[in-house]
Specification:
With about 130 residues, the chain is of the alpha+beta class. It has a single domain, classed as Sandwich (Jelly Rolls), CATH 2.60.120. Helices cover about 25% and strands about 35% of the residues. The strands form two sheets. The chain has a five-stranded antiparallel beta sheet, covered by helices on one side.
Length: about 130
């Protein structure tokens, strides 16, 4: 099963917890044992898995990425979003999660995040469940 999820971001940089949407896709697929692949077809966005219980964790990640790759630093790419391209490459555009007993195999504190690095924008997330 392949499902496309639309997401609207509201900030230039933000992490949006999409765990519930991905879990719903797994439930709708009826898959009991398998793999869930999540992919974003955007060059200034990413997908990551990290702690979802404490919002300070994602804020710390955003702050550190901004420190490492600041916006408007005189990059050769002249569209003004070179930092977003670099951050997307550092974080990555996909994640693969096992499915067992009709559920995603995530750790106790793990959540799935869509990472926006050039917003606000309307974005797509492709979910493939096998």
């Amino acid at each position: 099963m392949i499902k496309e999820i639309s997401i609207s971001t509201s900030k230039q940089q933000e992490f949006v917890n999409i765990t519930d949407q991905i879990e719903k896709a797994v439930e709708e697929s009826g898959t009991k044992e398998g793999i869930c692949s999540i992919y974003v077809p955007h060059t200034t966005a990413a997908i990551t898995i990290n702690e979802g219980a404490d919002p300070n964790v994602v804020e710390d990640i955003i702050d550190k990425l901004e420190e490492l790759v600041p916006r408007g630093r005189g990059y050769k790419h002249t569209e003004g979003n070179a930092d977003g391209h670099i951050k997307s490459s550092l974080v990555g555009v996909s994640e693969t999660i096992p499915i067992r007993n009709s559920s995603l195999v995530l750790g106790t504190w793990q959540s799935i995040f869509f990472c926006e690095f050039d917003g606000p924008r309307q974005r797509r997330i492709i979910v493939e469940i096998k």
